[in-house]
Batch of 2 targets.
Target 1
Amino acid sequence: MSDKSKILELAQKYKTPLLIVDHEIIRENFKKFCKLLPRVKPYYAIKANPEAQIVNTLYKMGSGFDVASWEEFMIVYDVLKGNQEKKKLFMNENVIYANPVKRIDSLKKLNNYYLQMTFDNFIEIEKIAKYCKNSRLILRIDVPNTGSVVELSTKFGAPQNICIDLIKYANKLGFNVEGLSFHVGSQCSNFNNYIDAFEIASQIFEQSEQIGNNLTILDIGGGFPVPYDTQIPSFDELAKILNSSIKELFNSPEINIIAEPGRFLVATSATTVVEINGKATRNDKTYYYINDGIYNTFSGVLFDHIQYHFKAFKEGELKESAVVGPTCDALDKISLDEMLPDLDIEDLLYSENTGAYTNASATHFNGFPPAKIVHINT
Ligand SMILES: Cc1ncc(COP(=O)(O)O)c(C=O)c1O
């Protein structure tokens, strides 16, 4: 969102810290994803931003949803129930439970919903067989995450050499494994990761067919990068690569290709407006203390490894400044390297592209509540 006067107007109306989510941008991102990847059905990974209004907007656009906990599942369930969705359609088509290791109490509850769910190890198959027999299994495989900002392969994904044994074990416990999933790591700008992942998945599809377990779903995960800075290669370029891998290795119309985009759909939709509470000079640099920080909207600096930047509403000669959060913790520094004009307390700043992994991981540390969220163009 780049309309400065609109941002200011909303900040004056709702007060700061304020996270403005523009649903028109979410719809545009969704349309772009579907247009450039016509074979791929997106399941929005709601962990990126679990606001019910966002789920609602994406549901209306035709998105499915990737959930990682019973609680996320219930957010989607409530939105769909609000749209008077029929239960059966909801259970089978609209949700993938894409956390390879699940809580037992969640599995027991999920048994009523016949969900697609991922797994990547033997113990998990036993858990699912015991507590959630009514499931459709998707095997999460290990793929390279080289250069991705958030590496996921260090925690999840079955190595290729045990995949067939896992499928055989699932068969033994009464399941036909329906598909494979992978995740190349979040904010992936090394597109070779996708190429390698398709190659590995295609080999496992073939080996699985040989043992009589036909796979019909390929879930290509998330990772689609967002242009936080100009270095990021374009989504158009990535789409070409993905389409050509799909054509070469998964051309059969009997294979359903799905994805779990999180960041790509929502990151650019939000702008956060903050107020300067304090100002000090340290080591010849001006430090601005604002009313939001690492423990709140800018939690992504730590958890998501993203460097957010700030813009001022005031004009003036720019000089290197630091922007830090309101808590007593010295870790609570958002950026030590912002080019800003000379500002005063009570001046406002704004930060764009703050829609993914921001409010989702905000805390109440030190008593500072997370930013208010306002949804526009819903
Ligand atoms: C299983 C799974 N799917 C999808 C996503 C969303 O990834 P991204 O935001 O990179 O699209 C994540 C992110 O951690 C994930 O763990």
Note: The chain has a mean pLDDT of 96.
Target 2
Amino acid sequence: MKKTILIIICSLSGFALQPTHGQTTKNIVFVVMDGLRWQEVFNGADTTIINNKTFVSNKEKCMKKYWNSDVAARRSMLMPFLWSTVKEKGQIYGNRTKNSFVNVKNPFWFSYPGYNELLSGYADKNINSNEFGPNPNETILEALNKTDEYKGKVAAFTSWDAFNDIINEKRSGVYVNAGFEKMPDGVAGTSTALLNKMQYHLPDIFDGVRLDGATFTMGFEYMKQNKPRCMFLVFDETDDFAHGGRYVDYLNSAKYGDEFVKELWDWCQATPEYKDKTTFIITCDHGRGVTTDGWKSHGTKHEHSDETWFAIIGPNTPAKGEITSGQFYNEQLAKSIANLLNFDFKANHPIAEGIEAVKAK
Ligand SMILES: [Zn+2]
């Protein structure tokens, strides 16, 4: 009798104390920093590039801002949020010097194929151009937006104007604000008109690509006003400054990207709709070359530019910090997002398996 009571008490208290292993992720914030190399993410600024006058005119200033002989200190100078909060509470994949490998699966190693892979979970060989036009593949954003639960609660703010096609805005109905696109009146609250106007008064240095500070601010204000359940943000300066051989600007933009993520994370953690029920995924669409000149570019002519990285932080993701084993692919992130939301992502194309380690059982 005593034993029975004890068993009942134990199982009752056990039940009550059991941490919830069910779904807690209700929202996704998915951030991509275009063409930001894993080399800088994990090792910080690279002296072989800093020492080259072609790429860095004021070496002393650059060293002061981004150099420390200790690699952990150095990478924290570049991406302080990633290497504090995300490292402590999340998972960071892709440090090849520690046997963690992430690659794109598509055979092209440039943007549209990379974003299609990330969003549709399918490294489609037919998507072979940045001017491909409307994406035939259904993305995780579109699939979510088709459901009653997420309809009208999926949004994308991107610096590059190709995303109206990549997300197939017309077919998917996902709200996409890409390139120098105006927001509809009032959609970002009282700041809407000001932000719409401001974007046209910034330098158009990348030919149709909006500067990231504008994309971020517009997206963030939209988020505050509309509380989307799935928010996709893409910053582009890292890629464009690298193509231009402007290494300090490339580093600065990586740092701004890290600051954007911090601001979004802090706001989410202070906002009831998002607090402790939002998972952040941060990644890139491709890597870059590694030779003296090669870091500027990417594509199959530039070895190693298929090498990528990603980071993840949220209520379902066990805190493992820097991952030190395994091979993963960008195409796995779409299904990983679906798994975190307990959403059954199906489309009329193959979808790569999600990554189990990002979600506790
Ligand atoms: Zn590029």
Note: The chain has a mean pLDDT of 94.
